[in-house]
Amino acid sequence: MVNDEQIIDQTKNWIQKIVIGLNFCPFANREFKNNTIHYQIEHSPKRVDARETLLKECKRLDRDKNIATTLLIFPNAFQEFDIYLQFVSFAENLLKQKGYEGIYQLATFHPLYQFEGSDPNDAANYTNRSIYPMLHLLREDQVRKAVEFYGNAGEIPERNVQFAREKGDAYMKMLRDSCL
User: Fold this and answer.
1) Which of 59, 83, 164, 176 has the fewest beta carbons closer than 10 A?
2) E strand or H helix at 152, and its extent?
3) C-alpha–C-alpha distance, residues 126 and 168, integer Å
4) What is the four-CA torsion angle of 78, 79, 80, 82, rounded to 10 degrees?
5) Does the predicted TM-score (pTM) go above 0.90?
6) DSSP 3-state helix, strand, coil percentages of the chain (rounded to 5)?
7) Is residue 142 left, alpha or beta, with left meaning phi > 0 and alpha meaning psi from -120 to 50?
């Protein structure tokens, strides 16, 4: 059984090797180096507990402006991608209901991530394939600033997809699995 410290270390490895290492997110390196990412693990497989953890993390971000972003990690929940997507939809609606629309947004990562209409073996899916099911809770004002600074942020996903496809499914899987 993997403990919390190992889960966080594995997640940090994934961020370093893939998110930063492959430049999938040009904004991540700054927050990673500044240690302004909060890692929150929810062990419960129950959706109600995931819901409560999401709300607690929104409140944590409300209180602590030194945290730039939060990764909610679900090592024991949402193993099936379709179930995860249902929770993502629920979580997005919950943020709206609780008045967080325009304040926080979610980015989604899952070990079996598959873009709609794509083949399961399309290497492009690895741009969002993580080692655990995760929700990335971002501050929208910081996202806007980063996008303004970076410019042409709309090209990032296309560039990532192209890179992943050039490397291929086997390479991307090996790199992701090396984070464990």
Assistant:
1) 59
2) none
3) 10
4) 30
5) yes
6) 55, 10, 35
7) alpha
